[in-house]
Amino acid sequence: MNEFKHFINGEYVASASGKTFDNRCPVDNSLIGRVHEAGRDEVDAAVRAARAALKGPWGKLTQAQRTALLHKVANRINERFDEFLEAECRDTGKPYRIASHIDIPRGAANFTAFAETLANHPTEGFRLDTPDGKGALNVGHRSPKGVIAVISPWNLPLLLMTWKVGPALACGNTVVVKPSEETPATTTLLGEVMNECGVPPGVFNVVHGFGPDSAGEFLTTHPLVDAITFTGETRTGEAIMKAAAVGLRNISLECGGKNPGIVFADCDLEKAVEGTMRSAFVNCGQVCLGTERVYVERPIFDAFLARMKEEVAKLKLGRPQDPQANFGPLVSQEHRDKVLSYYRLAVEEGATVEIGGGIPDMGPELNGGAWVEPTIWTGLSDDARVIREEIFGPCCHIRPFDSEEEVIALANDTDYGLAAAIWTENSSRAVRVAEQMEAGIVWVNSWFLRDLRTAFGGAKQSGIGREGGVHGLEFYTELKNICIKL
Ligand SMILES: NC(=O)C1=CN([C@@H]2O[C@H](COP(=O)(O)OP(=O)(O)OC[C@H]3O[C@@H](n4cnc5c(N)ncnc54)[C@H](O)[C@@H]3O)[C@@H](O)[C@H]2O)C=CC1
Ligand SMILES: O=C(O)/C=C/C=C(\O)C(=O)O
């Protein structure tokens, strides 16, 4: 039986209260282990350790020394690849086939990419003319922001946690991470890696627990936290924003999406089908960038729908270890209840279920798991809740359109603004439409093609701020101008 403890000041510690909660595997609902639930005291100890570490050996490292240390962390994740893979897939149920080329490699790359990008970023400088003719030099100086609270979700646990911890540490901050209660394993394991690599105690801390009235709230309301970075649901983002208002702490929020895919008749049909399949069904549809609304130009609507149904029928559901499996369960029974409620709602709202729509029979060993069928609907009206609300499951609605103007309006008719995918071989149209998308990220003839140097974040209710590349500098550092009179 695993026991997931907090990682505070370089040591694994249990909750003083003795409070724990169960961690279950979504593949078959078996018990993985017990997770310690942090109270205010553990959160306070973690934040104080992080604050003290800013003034310790960590705060004295040069950028080059920090960069070298973060490379070591990335290498060690790669050396312990199989342990991370097994832990991640046990927590989430996702296939090894997926996690071994997305989650774990990106978990390591998030340290190297940000260490390099930030180490090589130039300092701002301006020469100012002055009346005496001698002038002045203005030099931008960046210092770490301080203690960063990282609140991370369950869908890509290692990837999304390190996506924040990597740049935070590269900029010289210290962190307290509150991973999702559903997926404590890889964040806990990262504590061992930090110790093995010689990252000083207190630089990386982990507290476990839930959101409201638990570790998440205790951490985000802690007065010694300087800034909060979050990925998860929009409503949680609002709660965190309120918490951050006290003491005027900075926030970076990456929240939900209801992302459109736009398929023009002049696309390469096979490319569009392959990309839309991935964007709707990879990770069992639990990716904030995923496509839940697909708009297809009428002349190819029937052909596109038929090909999508053929491909959905080929998805191979199975245990994470099954080398053929490319589709796992949802993360939890609770999330399955939510997704299935939308499957029922779609029918109530008048959808035609083109494929799926229910619970697959996985056999006696797996039927207790959080499995749902990959699902495609057609026929819903544009104001249906299924079209407007983020479901975060393996499902999409496909609807025909007749003109570019119409589809731009449809795609933007949402409270969210995270991502969009456009499929066309006409590059002028691609740019024209991409520029009109109310979204932070637009892919043309691709999806989830990630370059870690680029800006990442959402418009409207999909978030506040941009991370990625040098954009994270604005959040993870304090920029001071030093004016030197010559
Ligand atoms: N990347 C995304 O866009 C994600 C979206 N979701 C969506 O959100 C729905 C709910 O899933 P949850 O895991 O409950 O997401 P959530 O947004 O509630 O949880 C994400 C993280 O925030 C923490 N948290 C929750 N409330 C908090 C609070 N008041 N203060 C501080 N921390 C808090 C959680 O413990 C977790 O670590 C899902 O059904 C899905 O639709 C979930 C995970 C990721
Ligand atoms: O940074 C990435 O490549 C992936 C980001 C995905 C999310 O933010 C999400 O699914 O929540």
Automatic annotation (TrEMBL):
The keyword Endoplasmic reticulum does not apply. The active site is at E254. Its EC number is 1.2.1.8. CDD domains: ALDH_F8_HMSADH. Residues 12-482 form the Aldehyde dehydrogenase domain. It comes from the Bacteria. Gene3D superfamilies: Aldehyde Dehydrogenase, Chain A, domain 1, Aldehyde Dehydrogenase, Chain A, domain 2. GO terms for molecular function: betaine-aldehyde dehydrogenase (NAD+) activity. The keyword Transcription does not apply. It holds the Pfam family Aldedh. Keywords: NAD, Oxidoreductase. Belongs to the aldehyde dehydrogenase family. This is Betaine-aldehyde dehydrogenase. It comes from Zobellella denitrificans.
